[in-house]
User: What shape does this take?
Amino acid sequence: MSASKLVSLRDAIARVVPDGASVCMGTALEAAIPFAAGHEIIRQGKRDLTLIGPISDMLFDQLIGAGAAGRVIAAWVGNVSAGLGHNYRRATEQGEPHPLAVADHSNLTLSLALLAGSLGVPYIPTRSLLGSDIAATNHDFRAARDPWSGAPLLLVPALRPDVTIVHVQRADALGHCHAWGPLGVTREAALAAQRVLVVAEEIWPTGRILADPNLVLLPAFKVAAVVHEPWGAFPSPLQGYYGRDHASFAQYHAESGTFEGFRAWLDRWVLGPGDWPGFLGLLGPERLAGLRPRRRLPSEPLDYGV
Amino acid sequence: MSASKLVSLRDAIARVVPDGASVCMGTALEAAIPFAAGHEIIRQGKRDLTLIGPISDMLFDQLIGAGAAGRVIAAWVGNVSAGLGHNYRRATEQGEPHPLAVADHSNLTLSLALLAGSLGVPYIPTRSLLGSDIAATNHDFRAARDPWSGAPLLLVPALRPDVTIVHVQRADALGHCHAWGPLGVTREAALAAQRVLVVAEEIWPTGRILADPNLVLLPAFKVAAVVHEPWGAFPSPLQGYYGRDHASFAQYHAESGTFEGFRAWLDRWVLGPGDWPGFLGLLGPERLAGLRPRRRLPSEPLDYGV
Amino acid sequence: MTLGPTARELMVAAAAREIRDGERVFVGMRLPILAFALAQRTHAPAALGLFENGLVRAAPADLDGTLYTMSDPPNVAGALWSTTTANIMGLLEQGGVDLGFIGGAEVDRYGNLNTSYVGDPRQPRVKLPGSGGGADIACLSRRVVIIMPQARHRFVEQVGYRTSPGHGDGPGWRERVGLPGGGPATLITTLGVFRFDEQSKEAVLASYHPGQSVDTLRAATGWSVRVAPDVRETPVPTDAELALVRACDPQGVWTR
Amino acid sequence: MTLGPTARELMVAAAAREIRDGERVFVGMRLPILAFALAQRTHAPAALGLFENGLVRAAPADLDGTLYTMSDPPNVAGALWSTTTANIMGLLEQGGVDLGFIGGAEVDRYGNLNTSYVGDPRQPRVKLPGSGGGADIACLSRRVVIIMPQARHRFVEQVGYRTSPGHGDGPGWRERVGLPGGGPATLITTLGVFRFDEQSKEAVLASYHPGQSVDTLRAATGWSVRVAPDVRETPVPTDAELALVRACDPQGVWTR
Assistant: This one.
């Protein structure tokens, strides 16, 4: 087997996310959003990224406000607690901090685009978005007819992100990882990607991960780097590890209402701390402890015996 | 929640598999093949079934010889230990016991057909089978061009089996079930089906199955019946429960070389015993015990805690 | 003494009544998640909730607070299935979802919704968050219920951008463009309830909430409102129903 | 004293030499599974095996007997990934598989394989089991190695049915029909080893097994055999290699 891919988040982002890359994040919808990785992308001043993800709950808004994104391919960009994303609005309406190209999707079409990418096929047809203006204004789509029935179809072209970043419950140093809870487009996005950055809540020995090969998310040869970053999905929830910190979403929404307010938020919570443990230190241990599960709900083991 | 769907195999086959139905089986390739269900289909004298499956290792050959099948949609029909399937040859070459229509697939195209069915989309394109005579002689496929690049593509139309029969390690009485080991096309085939028959090695309380909702194979509302039939995949293997009984495959191949030989095999092993426990009784407990795993290899639990 | 229902609590109760027992319902978040919980605990105990993150649930989440998102851990624990968006959306495109709830920033008389752009999409005056799964639910559910706050500038003659198609420009439109689902059946607002007419496909006022009237509804709608001959006041939830709704939103995050 | 290698053991050793370290190999069953195990334990410890049932493995299965199928429990225990056929085939169609092994009942000089029908497909003289995953591997792997027993009636001028496309009718054919993979590189038989010429795409005899000669190979081939200028005897596996092969097939199920 290959060598350890375990690196710091700083090194991982420096190496795996070049300027101009297409980066898929937030693949489990409102849960397991890789905020730690997103903040490090901002700290390293990455530019001209294409952000790909279904709904992105607040993370894309932060990256857009920080000037990291040139294009967004998404079904929804905002703040699930509060609705609109102020930076997304400023970028698209006023070009602040700079203009942003938007390719609108629905959750279904984004899922099919990544599924097509994971299968290595050029597109998948659907009847969703027929008659929707999304199909008219996102020129990546194509109208077609079902060659059997003649019925109208929309062809959704494959997406193959340069990088998919996932936050998972546990991984080994080689890149084998376990993720559970609703998966959204996580598996498709990981398999469609050219390379995957795995950020893990816990690092486990390989034998304990491979004791359940059915739960392994993707083959490790697709994994470019593994990062151990506890609480790395905060303030989004991670099943079995922590709940959602709703206050963070509300506070961000309130403080990012003006660009100056957003810059102050960014200085305080992202640029100031310098790294993720620094950010967690600002929150304080009690706030984090309050998000820990109160009950354990363990699953039954599977027997792979021979 | 709904009422128990637990019924005998006899009742399940009588109710869920009408004459003329399309039935998908053998979805995990060489493992977890629902032989118990197949034998019951034979005993009930079902006719004109369309058999759907990737490779079917011996089961389809038995159903064809018994006269249950009018059509086969498969990538491979035979006996993995021995190669050719004698009944498949007799039916296609000599129309014995009656003619059989064959729609050839590859494992990839069958997988895409069921995936398309599970997604509710009419087809998925691929570059596999371009230049293969399979694409020319199976008229279900259609040649096309990639509307973006102009490159040749093969369109694989969706398959929606009337019934998919799966053999799983454990299920509850409502139809929630856990399957592990290589899945082949199992999930796609279950989700693509109009209804699913779950045959389970063990019946567990609902709470213990739902303790791992990520491992649940499909939503229970798709499950028409649940059958408790231990050893129901014998002589194919079931991870954690039993290995493959290679001798059964070799013996079947030797004895089914003539149609008379096959009829004698059928009388002895399928029609004679009357039901699956009767069949297992013929084998004897020592033969079965010898297939049990010698080592347990349990996975690590997942915590769904809140 | 129980406080009387807020407009949003009335909406939740009205939405719950749209759910029939045994139905598979694409739930979404906010008010519909409360409506699903209410229906499940009253007349529709066999209803199933589907969530686009990959969840299927029967019983509503076991909570001691508010469910902010469908991915909050209490919504996962006790789920019947936890899977992928593609698998859930596959059930939707197969035609296996009876009812879907959606909302938007703008709606028109044919139930088309805009959740994308106000103004020219190339240079929008307001960039809204987008479809999420809303457009998929609108396109593919057998039946759609729209829930949104009512205001004249949001209830427009024709939406500027059709994110989630309703009945398009009227009868026959969905068939023409190839949409398989049945489209909007009901529009539940902060002021009343509209039902989409089977023939004309137009939203017809079926009831006004307590304190409202046909006139106040007309004043808050940007198209000329057709009124059902049997228009009446929206039924008020019982105290028991109200208690159930409030148990799911104890801080009133979504309903106050 | 070690018994000398059988023809099939020579094939396994030759097939193992086709696997480069670190490559992702679509393994299949029978002889290739033994070749993968041999390569993994000698010169290619970082090679990965992919199986169409949904498995990825590094180390060969831990066995005290023969692996009859890729789905036998020992091939699952210790796997790096256990997933679906679609996920594995997706890696293949993405171009992520370096090498695939296939076999068939008939082969021609361009490496096209027939595993479907002898005679008219509508009224076949012999119905063969079919493609399985063979045609997919032939179409989509970067490089293909064919392994099959050699006999004149199986090594034909042109296959009657092209299940798994090789180089079609010669140079440029794969590009013309749209196949992304590189097609057959090597044909390993019970009698010798052919390599497909980069220009002409024809199978050229590279080596004959001990006891064979160019003449015996010619006699057992249904097309006029081109012979490489440096044709030689196939290298015999070392005793250590033979011991490794025999450990994987102790009863000689596949190799005797």
Summary: The mean pLDDT of chain C is 95. Chain C touches chain A through 53 residues (CB under 8 Å). Residues 7-17 of chain C form the longest helix (11 residues). Helices of chain C lie at 7-17, 31-41, 73-76, 85-93, 134-140, 173-177, 214-219, 239-248.
